[in-house]
Amino acid sequence: xxxxxNLAGAYKSVGCFDEVIELFEQVLAExxxxxxxxxxxxxxxxxNLAVAYHSAGRFGEAIELFERVLADxxxxxxxxxxxxxxxxxNLAVAYRSVGRFGEAIELFEQVLDDxxxxxxxxxxxxxxxxxNLADAYHSAGRFGEAIELFEQVLADxxxxxxxxxxxxxxARNNLAFAYGDVGCFDEAIELYEQVLDExxxxxxxxxxxxxxxxxNLAGAYKSVGRFGEAIELFEQVLAExxxxxxxxxxxxxxxxxNLAVAYRSVGRFGEAIELFEQVLAExxxxxxxxxxxxxxxxxNLAVAYHSAGRFGEAIELFERVLAExxxxxxxxxxxxxxxxxNLADAYRSVGRFGEAIELYELVLAExxxxxxxxxxxxxxxxxNLAGAYKSVGRFGEAIELFEQVLDExxxxxxxxxxGTLTTRHNLAFAYDSVGRFGEAIELYERVLADxxxxxxxxxxxxxxxxxNLADAYRSVGRFGEAIELFERVLADxxxxxxxxxxxxxxxxxNLAGAYRSAGRFDEAIELFEQVLDExxxxxxxxxxxxxxxxxNLAGAYGDVGxxxxxxxxxxxxLPDCQRVLGRxxxxxxxxxxxxxxxxxxxxxxxTPSPETGED
Length: 615
Hints:
By secondary structure, this protein is an all-alpha fold. About 80% of the residues lie in helices and about 0% in strands. The protein has 29 helices and no strands. The longest helix is centred in the N-terminal third of the chain and has 18 residues, at about 15-35. The N and C termini lie far apart (about 125 Å).
């Protein structure tokens, strides 16, 4: 039996969870027959089998078995036995994995009290439970409590175990992760880089923990828009994980998935989709089609399809993932709620606004019930719902909701949190949409100053606000300032994101629009034609951004009297918009109106001549 236990441990270390489960189930059956169902070794194997279920993403079975083991250990060993406390801790971890954060936190707090009383406040397992409790606070969006507790645990670990102990390094890594989630990116990156140096020195460059910290550092680089460094580091970590852990190890597959996410972030949609599809096939083979990580990759692939303008495929895949997550994880799991939100985003992109709003409202009600009204993900959905209201012209409701979300973000996350800044930006955009240009410009200018201060002048979010401020200047006829700012944003985006990034193309398109508004028609047409060629090459002929540029170019042709070319372009564009976006999408309707107007201008109705008569 000991040999089987050791073999199971070896299988687990390389991510072969099915083999682990099969082996533990065999050992458990033999122990129940030979030692009896209540023997401590039998209970240990039952606990280990539950851990294996959890690792394989079979959360329902894991929770059911942990609850059974806990009851057995309380009855056989007593409520204060270390093994009983261990199972109670494991059950809390499983509750957290399925989004039952309230139960997880309550149970972690119980375990912590018990371990302080039984083992003492400085026992390593007591410190582990405090770390787990901090992690549960973090998952529940209680970031302030999480960071405070992570910092306390780190200080205690340094004092008790020493600064070089692996548990101390893990706590430093966890604290860095929490800093990143509250927008303290400089602190997060500095701490990750410190931990990485220590892991290399103490554990070696190839240790799995060292690779994990490097992976997290790459994620932090991505969060602050340092995409080149992020991608380079993800690619390095991936190569080393393939060499050290093997190409099929779950950690290797996770890194491959996140590298694809990074490719998507810089507009390399083709590479992202190809890599997501590879990872998905590998995870289905290694982990199984229903493993939570497989479902996450499927969701990410749908997001990539959406980003690339492949809306039909995105919606079909989101709907499939949602059905699978409801079946495997349950309708209330945080991942299920995220996919529901993503599906609403996709409906909104193709002009299915009624379905989008209905789904956003459903997700919002569920998140308020499951995660709580103050959870960051709840605030995100509330923000998305406000955006959907704006899309259908319900501007009063949109602005009211944006203002509510902004107040909540300030209270819960702080005025400088990236989420708070995003909501302020969105509120400015809503003001702009209803013609409240003075308020929009004032708010954009404040958000821009804050984003420069908090995120840096080159962060992608900072560049978005600068671009939108330029557009607001254009709306009020401040064409000189608009063009100057668009040209600056374009230079920055070319330097930071690259000339082929979708955001760079957007700014080029906007600059052409500003030239057009200022009457610089030749420059506008030349730039629109360049952007159109680049959009077709990089995004494809059916991408919404490509369709928008075609409409803008047709408008510019009309401005200079090239009506035949404008009508021809719009007549070709209209069926493409109807096919890709649907007949009710705002862009489709705008193209219809533009085509009608161009035809009227080309063939104005005959004006009756005044009659003449004789006296």
